[in-house]
Amino acid sequence: MLFLIWELLLLLNSAAIGFAERVELFWDIGRLNISRDGYNTWDSICVNNAVPISPVHVTQGDVLILNVRNSLDVPTAVHAHGIYHNYTDYYDGAEMVTECGIPPGENFTYIIDTTTQAGDLWIHGHVHSQLTDGFRTPFIIHEKVKPTTYDKDEVLYFEDWNERTFEDMVAIDAKLKLADIPPLYRTMLINGVNANTSKSLHFEPRKRYRLRIMSLSTSSWIKFRMPGHTMHVISKDGVEAVPMEVDGLDLGPGQRASIIVTAQDTAEFNYMYNVTLYANFIPLYPGLMPRYYSGLIEYQKNAPLASIPTVDDAQLVWNDVINMQARDRMPLLPVDRQIVLSIKQFTPEHGIPYYSFGDYAFNHSLVPILFTALSMGELASNSSVYGPQAQAHILQYGESIELLVYNDNSKDHSLHLHRGEYQVVEVGPYGDAVANNHTAVEFQKSGPSPMRCDVVTVRAYSYIKLRFHVNRGMVALFHCHMMHGGYFGLAATFIAAPELLQKYVKVPEEAIRMCKLQGIKTSGNAAGNQGFDMTGLPPPILVNRE
Questions:
Q1: 201-202 and 193-194: which strand pairing?
Q2: Among 467, 463, 480, 468, which Cα is nearest to 427's?
Q3: Bridge partners for 22 per DSSP
Q4: For the whole model, what pTM was predicted?
Q5: Residue 127 CB neighbour total at 10 angstroms
Q6: 165, 225, 268, 492: which sits with the fewest CB atoms below 10 Å from its CB?
Q7: In the 8-state DSSP scheme, what is residue 244?
Q8: pLDDT per residue as tens digits for the range 6-29
């Protein structure tokens, strides 16, 4: 019966794609020497020889056809962050997890179906640190029916920026013996340009505005406020929420929130919105960390600025996801199985740290993890065939999983689940925050309908509980979206219902060709061998040395 249900759903989905509106884009990914901060010229990743990359807008039910040519001198891959990809895992864009990447000079087409979702997503590169080099842009799926009434829809997206590559910054920090601290991004971009030169928000009295606030940063958190205006959060990471009144938004790398703001009754005054760029692991330094920016909310040209008293952040209400409720009132999931992940860090003599959720830092296999799941038959349900570097967890169809993540670490981490979202059900202290000069996280539980999201911040010296239901076969990466963590091993993989993957996933020949062009095997275990023979697989990096 289970297989018949899925066959019916797949047929219906295929039929929906056949009748859906097709939105076709052509992206030539290259580099452009340009100044994005207004001071320094540098080779930013561009699309069609233009920077910033234009946001992508579609309507729910559309099929996005993204034709990509790689004009870089290294492989690339495109991740539509937040898309479910029901049995089209090979379009997820996670290099050596669900695909091999696009080699230089080659073309590949991603087909992204939006039938089952809407909201504030984004698209970014998923090879090495290409995201930090500018390969990122909003991806907005407009609802066919608005979740609430509003007069105008605006996108505000924020990026941290430096004139050097992430790898160059890490190398410099290593020489200075500062590599344990993630690189400092010295500039913030708003909608792709220096925050100090960004355009004003134009408001009309008594109008209702939907503002899609998006953190596309790589290593920094942002706080966003609109003093003099009331903000109601209506969605988080594309999931609709019971409206929650807040004074400000606090968003980690990859997090997004839609808010409704009602304009003032008159155009007598103009106002300012405020943005703070910060990171808990970078020492406070006046003028450099945190960094403060502001933009104009313009009601009338040359109108005076309203005088708004300054209020300490600690006295304000922020968008703490643990206090939010999902609009669909999906109840708290039961727990069939708990998976415990502990964030570990090891810094070897060369000074560059490695991270892990277990004993070993995540690293690429010699075969994409999806292809191992598809080719290993019954052994695909044994985590050993994916190798210790994959940090693989096998999930069964129909079970509800609780992730318990411990962070006995001095850094906040922004954790992202590919291909779905999780309920945020509990947070609390872990380790000795006060002794390590950090503020202890308060114990809190969610309400009866926990908010769901695809990125969540686990604060330093704290734990968090997340729950999700396994409703299909998939290969999903779970990783830190703070680049320093994700780049150096803080990731795990969930292989859900591999027997269903083997039944329903058919990898396109073009995806196979991308692998063959790079000499990458498309079957076998992590080493490209049969059974448990890992000959040829590089040794994993041991992080947990307790």
A1: unpaired
A2: 463
A3: 63
A4: 0.93
A5: 21
A6: 268
A7: E
A8: 344 444 444 444 557 999 999 999
